Amino acid sequence: MIASSDAPAVQTDGLVKRFGDEVAVDGIDLTIPRGGIYGVLGPNGAGKTTAIRMLATLLRPDGGRAEVLGHDVAAEPAVIREKISLTGQFASMDEDLTGIENLVLFGRLQGFTSKGARARGYELLDAFGLTDAAKRQVKKYSGGMRRRLDIASSLLVTPELLFLDEPTTGIDPRSRIQVWDIIRTVVDAGTTVVLTTQYLEEADELADRLVVIDHGKVIAEGTPSQLKSQIGSGALKMRVAEPSDREQAARILGETLGADVVREADPTALSARLSTDSGASAALLALEEAGVAVESFSLGQPNLDEVFLALTGRPQPDGADAAPHAEQMQETAR
Amino acid sequence: MSTETASREAEPQLGRPTDTSVPPESERIRMVLAGSDGRPRRAGPVTASVTYGWRALLKIKHVPEQLFDVTVFPIMMTVMFTYIFGGALAGSVDQYVQWLIPGIFVQTLVMVTMYTGLTLNRDISKGIFDRFRSLPTWRPAQLVGALLGDQVRYVLAGVIILAVGFVMGFRPDGGAVGVVAAFLMLLVFSFSLSWIWTMISLLVRSEQAAMGVSMFILMPLMFASNIFVDPETMPDWLQAAVEVNPVSVVVTTVRELMAGTYDLSSVGLVALCCAVLVAVFGPISMFIYNRKS
Ligand SMILES: Nc1ncnc2c1ncn2[C@@H]1O[C@H](COP(=O)(O)OP(=O)(O)OP(=O)(O)O)[C@@H](O)[C@H]1O
Ligand SMILES: [Mg+2]
């Protein structure tokens, strides 16, 4: 076995988990290096939570192996639990207790003395901007505050590896940015973060590497820029003021961007997938020079649907159909 | 042409307040993380269990309504059974009180133990269960701690019944010493019995199901016993069942202790019941707890 201090943060080999007939995680091979942020991207039901719970020693794998920080999840769960923290998808606080009581509870369980746990709890509340809410019951917290308290509880003892399961789902954009900043700070302090998300934008913003999974299988793995070179860096969406201008606009876009232009159902709308960021401003200029009245023009990152379309050549699967061309895509991603 | 924007639409509309300067928050978090002097020594089994017990008490503090079942319910049971059955069963209410109070005392505490399982079942369905299990603590602590915290509820229920009984004329010959001894023994029995409900609540999916199954077990245990009446009038087969029913064993011992008649063999029998309950249902519960998904 590799000395645990040089071992990767996570190494899995054909990891499988079944629930009855359903295969939630279907043979995942992954190596997550130490340091930085590793993103796990996938739609609802992809198996993200199931995979994380196996790595956090909460579920026993039904097949394959997984090592976390050099320790086998089945053989040495107790050692792993000392080195990791988990912030689950659903609030893992006692709603009846106050913020500080929750932190003292988890602090005591981590081995702090009563006094030590209280001091550490207030330090964390202060750092996370929750001092004013310290003595309020968690059920009266807003979604963003709960998330921050939840993450704070995972940092009572600085973990070597922190799992965050959809840390920003269901909170507003401002709280999301706060959570992002918190995550970056935690990583700067030397903790490896594994985070799941349904948003490509979030994975792109935070992750150093990421894996795309669906139906429990790996579809692609690599750095965000490797993935983007596969799926294109973004989606251009525009609308002309007059439907009669649309054909001309489509031609100009096609020429300046060298991309396939899609004519949407709306008679004024056009969209195109871009391989690089650069052409967009040139295209806008060309449209203006040609005298095409542009109603709106925006450049966005592809959403998860578009990612799946690009990676698998077909829309996001939602039936029990066969898994996408996993092996082939993994090849190209690496 | 009204708008002409080339902004990334995925970017949140609120400008990033953190773009230009490092927010003080990040700086504080950095300091807090750096300031942690490594992992404290692991919490031992006792500390961890006591901590979970403390949590149960905090929950009582914040949600005092949950004490309804250990306050109003015992008063109702005691008053109701004494006046309804008293005259008919024992000739007079005054006489029946001497017989019934120790029985009601046991019955109520046994009923209240069921709620331990229900509370646990509620915890399991929430995210907090995952956090508890991901901590490097002695795993049975969550279960043991919850049971310890519930002792407070049992004490409260017991004190109320004894007080109501006293008002209604219950005068045990064993005096304070006998009553306290009986009380302590009953607390140990309640703790041991709770492991059954713990196991059930780990096995079933919902709180309602836990309640249903627990009731199904509890009802015969309580009525096929000597809580309400002397089993002499029952058919032989039922008498045999009543005799081996652990609840009867406990009720008999509580009556003896309260009456001041020490009998080591019946106390020993109760101790044996407790040991068997913990030895059987404790490990089964832990096995299920560890495998729970
Ligand atoms: N405890 C369980 N019992 C039965 N089936 C389960 C259980 N947990 C997960 N599943 C199933 O396994 C599959 C994967 O679920 P999982 O929660 O891992 O997905 P996810 O990627 O986290 O999705 P989401 O984005 O919705 O959180 C789903 O089809 C789900 O129904
Ligand atoms: Mg999930």
Outline of this structure?
Chain A is an alpha/beta fold.
Comma- or semicolon-separated keywords:
heterodimer; A: 334 residues; alpha/beta; six-stranded mixed beta sheet; 14 strands; B: 293 residues; mainly alpha; elongated; disordered N terminus; binds adenosine-5'-triphosphate; binds magnesium ion
Would you write up a description of this structure?
The complex is a heterodimer of chains A (334) and B (293). Chain A has 334 residues and is of the alpha/beta class. Helix content of chain A is 37%, strand content 25%. Chain A has helices at residues 48-55, 77-83, 99-109, 114-127, 143-154, 173-188, 200-206, 224-231, 246-257, 279-289, 304-312, 326-333, and strands at 10-19, 22-32, 37-41, 63-68, 71-72, 84-87, 161-165, 192-197, 209-214, 217-222, 234-240, 261-263, 269-274, 294-300. In chain A, strands 6-7-8-3-9-10 form a six-stranded mixed β-sheet, with helices on both faces. Chain B has 293 residues and is an all-alpha fold. Chain B has one domain. Chain B has helices at 24-35, 45-62, 68-90, 93-124, 128-134, 141-167, 175-203, 207-223, 236-244, 246-259, 264-291. In chain B, 35% of the residues are buried. Mean pLDDT of chain B is 83; it is low at 1-22. Classes of the chains: A alpha/beta (334), B mainly alpha (293). The interface between A and B is large, with 75 and 59 residues. The complex binds adenosine-5'-triphosphate (ATP) and magnesium ion. Adenosine-5'-triphosphate binds next to strand 2 and helix 1 of chain A.
N-to-C order of helices and strands of chain B:
HHHHHHHHHHH
Largest Cβ-defined interface: A-B, 75 and 59 residues
pLDDT < 50 runs, ≥5 residues of chain B: 1-22
Helical fraction of chain B: over 70%
How large, in whole angstroms, is the Cα Rg of chain A? 23 Å
Q: Helices, strands, pairings?
A:
The complex is a heterodimer of chains A (334) and B (293).
Chain A: E1 10-19, E2 22-32, E3 37-41, H1 48-55, E4 63-68, E5 71-72, H2 77-83, E6 84-87, H3 99-109, H4 114-127, H5 143-154, E7 161-165, H6 173-188, E8 192-197, H7 200-206, E9 209-214, E10 217-222, H8 224-231, E11 234-240, H9 246-257, E12 261-263, E13 269-274, H10 279-289, E14 294-300, H11 304-312, H12 326-333
Helix pairs in contact in A: 3-4, 9-10
Chain B: H1 24-35, H2 45-62, H3 68-90, H4 93-124, H5 128-134, H6 141-167, H7 175-203, H8 207-223, H9 236-244, H10 246-259, H11 264-291
The complex binds adenosine-5'-triphosphate and magnesium ion (MG).
Adenosine-5'-triphosphate (ATP) binds next to strand 2 and helix 1 of chain A.
